[in-house]
Write a structure and sequence with these properties.
With 66 residues, this protein is mostly beta strands. The chain has a domain at 25-66. The protein has strands at residues 18-19, 22-23, 27-32, 59-64. Strand 1 (18-19) and strand 2 (22-23) form a beta hairpin. The chain is elongated. The mean pLDDT is 76.
């Protein structure tokens, strides 16, 4: 989980391939994004309004290969 964003809204941290401190097994993982703007409004995945740094996709996959 990352709550740190740069000035454009991109995460400044990345996943290191671990789960609770132990290496995760090689597999395909699903990720999901939930966002709350600084003004407290909740991103609903349909209207990015003036927040152009967000896309409409809220989930995806990542393949971990060791």
């Amino acid at each position: 989980e990352s709550k740190l964003l740069d000035e454009k809204g991109s995460p400044v941290e990345s996943w290191d391939g671990t789960n609770k401190g132990s290496p995760a097994q090689q597999d395909v993982y699903i990720w999901r994004v939930q966002a709350v703007y600084r003004d407290g409004s909740i991103w609903n995945n349909t209207d990015i309004g003036e927040h152009q740094f967000l896309t409409e996709q809220v989930w995806g996959t990542i393949t971990l290969i060791r």
